[in-house]
Amino acid sequence: MSFQKLIDDGIINNNGIPINDQMIQLSENMPPLKSTNLPWTCFEDLGTVKAFFQVVVEAVEAASLTEWFLCNSTTELEPAAFSLYPQLLPIGPLLASNRHADQTGHFWQEDSTCLAWLDQQPSCSVIYVAFGSFTIFNQTQFEELALGQELSNRPFLWVVRPGMTKETTASFPDGYVERVGSRGRIVSWAPQQKVLAHPSVACFVSHFCWNSTLEGVTNGLPFLCWPYFADQFHNESYIRDIWKTGLGFNKDEAGIITRGEIKSKVEQLLGDNSFKAKAMDIKEKVTSSIKEGGCSHKNLGNFIEWIHNDTDAL
């Protein structure tokens, strides 16, 4: 929504390409963002950057023609953004679990047997690791992620989907599966909303697309952020700097998040009760927004009433 301001201020050119590597802050109470981490700039190929930026331009132009602009968010999560653009109306979080229903529409078949495994784990003990449908690791990073979970000495549930590495198939370190044994559960896809709501889950390690962010927030979980592209860097900024419900990882000189870094951040996150306390506080505020009297509930109700009135007029 702010792309024209970025052009006018000399931050990006007309193709959306950053002119300099600098920090951007659209509003005083919004988290800063590197110009090289704008949603459309997270690609190595300039042609892809330009194409993605053109989609943004066309989407904003289309939005200007609408009577209603509904967002899967809440004022409690992003008050400064909604103040900046009051035409955006939050009606979220929109989750199947809010309706006590099952999530539908998946790229891969869910392995629901992991829920029975979670039932056997102590409360608030499991590290849930999932990177969505698009994140890709090289083999070195994949192995470091595997070994970091092993070093944590905690039970973990890890989603390793088909095509998660640049190689044809992901290869675990020698003897890895035997060493972690029943302490680690590895599945190709998980019923994520049910997993995140399970009492045995202690934290969520993810790329944090907006869907995963909302699912984690709604369940009051602390986060370990590993953004990959697009809006995920901005979501990480909210988690770390605004909500203060999680931590990020640091890469080494080779651009790798090492096993030691993973172990250290898991210990830091789960050793500090303030992260969980803040996550639970935000959970309460966010879930109240979709209840009767909440902001999101009111906005959705007004939209439905508008549809009824418009239909009656016809």
TrEMBL record:
Record CDD domains: GT1_Gtf-like
Keyword line: Transferase
Protein name from the UniProt record: UDP-glycosyltransferase
PANTHER family documented for this protein: TRANS-ZEATIN O-BETA-D-GLUCOSYLTRANSFERASE, UDP-GLYCOSYLTRANSFERASE 72B1
Keyword check for Transferase: yes
InterPro entries, A to Z: UDP_glucos_trans
Organism the protein comes from: Lactuca virosa
Pfam families for this protein: UDPGT
Protein's UniProt keywords contain Transferase: yes
Molecular function, one GO term: UDP-glycosyltransferase activity
